[in-house]
Amino acid sequence: MFSRWLFSFVNKDTKYLSEPFPLSRQIKKKAIESYEEHNRRAREVIPSDKLLEYDVTQGYGPLCRFLNIAEASCPTKPLPQTNSARSVNIQAVASIIFPVIVLCLLLFSLFASVFYRLTGGEKVVPWLKNKKRSVLYHLLSKVEKKNS
Q1: What contacts 74, CB < 8 A, 6 or more positions away?
Q2: Up-side HSE of residue 43: CA atoms within 13 Å toward CB?
Q3: Strand, helix or coil at 43?
Q4: Cα 74–Cα 61–Cα 50 angle in degrees, nearest 5
Q5: Which of 21, 34, 37, 88 is 20 to 30 A from residue 77's alpha carbon, by CA?
Q6: Does residue 4 surpass a pLDDT of 80?
C-alpha cells in the first residue's frame, strides 16, 4: 500500500513495509528531516520563478498572483478546510471497509448463484426460512414427546 511505502520512505525505515496494520507511529524527528530535505531539494532543482512556496493561511492572493490570475477573478472567500485529521482518518477507514464490503457482496452473489444451481432453483433466503421452520418444528415435536 501507498501508506506503507510513504511511511517507510519518509522515516527511512523499512519496518513499515512489513509490519501489520495499524502501522506504528512515525518517527517525528525523521519525518521532519525528510520533509525539510524534500523542500531543500525542491528549492535547489526548481527555478524560483516556477516555484511557489505557499502557506494556506495566506489565502488565495499569492496563489492567484503565481498563476497570473487577475485580482478581480481571484476568490475572496476563505479556502475550504477539508483535510482535517478526522477526514483523513475517515478516508483511511473507508479505503479498507469499501473493498471488504464489495468483496463480501461478490462472494455472497457467487455463493447464491452456486446454491441456486445445486438446489435446482431454490434461493438462499427462502431456503433458510424453510430450514428454520423445519428445525423449530422438529424441536417442538421433541419437546411435546417428552411432555407426553
Answers
A1: 60, 61, 64
A2: 8
A3: helix
A4: 105
A5: 88
A6: no
Burial class for 130, CB neighbours closer than 10 Å (0-12, 13-18, 19+) = exposed
Taking the alpha carbons at both ends of the chain, their separation in whole angstroms is 65
CA pair distance 126, 123, nearest whole angstrom: 6
Q: Are 30 and 11 in contact (CB under 8 A)?
A: yes
* Residue partners of 76: CB distance under 8 A and separation at least 6: 60
Q: Is the pLDDT confidence value at 32 over 70?
A: yes
What is the rounded distance in angstroms from the CA atom of residue 69 to the CA atom of residue 80? 19
Grid cell for residue 52 = 511557489
- Enumerate the domain spans of the chain: 2-120
| Dihedral of alpha carbons 49, 55, 58, 59, sign | positive
By the 8 A CB rule, do 35 and 11 touch? no
What's 16-34 look like in SS3? Answer: HHHCCCCCCCCCHHHHHHH
